[in-house]
Amino acid sequence: MDNGIWVDEYARTADPDIVAAGDCTNHPSALYGGRLRLESVPNAVEQAKSAAASLCGKQKGYTALPWFWSDQYDLKLQIAGLSQGYDQVVIRGDRGHARSFVAFYLKEGRVIAADCVNRPAEFMISKRLIAGETPVERDRLADESLALKTLLMK
Amino acid sequence: MPKIKYIEADGREYEIEVPADKTVMQGAVENMVDGIVAECGGCCSCATCHCYVDETWVDKVGEAGDMEKEMLEMVEGVRDNSRLSCQLNVTEALDGLVVHLPESQY
Question: Nearest CA to CA, how far is B100 from chain A (Å)?
Fold first, then answer.
């Protein structure tokens, strides 16, 4: 089919006895709307759980937030969400001089994705901000003097 | 071979032999212990291998590194004895280690 094997949120193809999971699947995304095909380890692992559940006659919807990671020498890259369609970027940290910063991608005042370089705490918070569709003020995202957890408060 | 005891939130206990070149996380994941997920496979990148080290073992496992500490800070239900089990290397000295698992890794 167009861009992968089409499955529903339970990893089932048009034939309910056949499931598919991982890089090849074109699946619905409640968070981003429409459908996605993701080539990532977490996608394969998490969607496989939904596929396995379907094969056992159970229903486990695949709703996990897309995320990615890579360790490149001394740089820990952690990416939460998908940035397509962003209308603002906010940088937290000194991108020019430090090997540690975050690029937050916002759409209509909410974080939709975050690229984190050596910022594991920000990565963890970003996952919650994105999944919770929490409105944020861009100045607070960039303000390093603010404790991260305050970003979760509305 | 060192034995690690995993205690799930619902009380189920598993005593598992884990070789000294593996981590506490691997011992769980390779033996079908549900309470540890380990999405990133042990890279200290996902915080879904969270465990609470039993009080009697806290001093013996040592302290978390900086990256691990930052990840742990943001974990739901984090406590003083929290560790990411992918960063706990099994050694003969940890034979008998007891870890308690959270209700959820999310």
Answer: 22
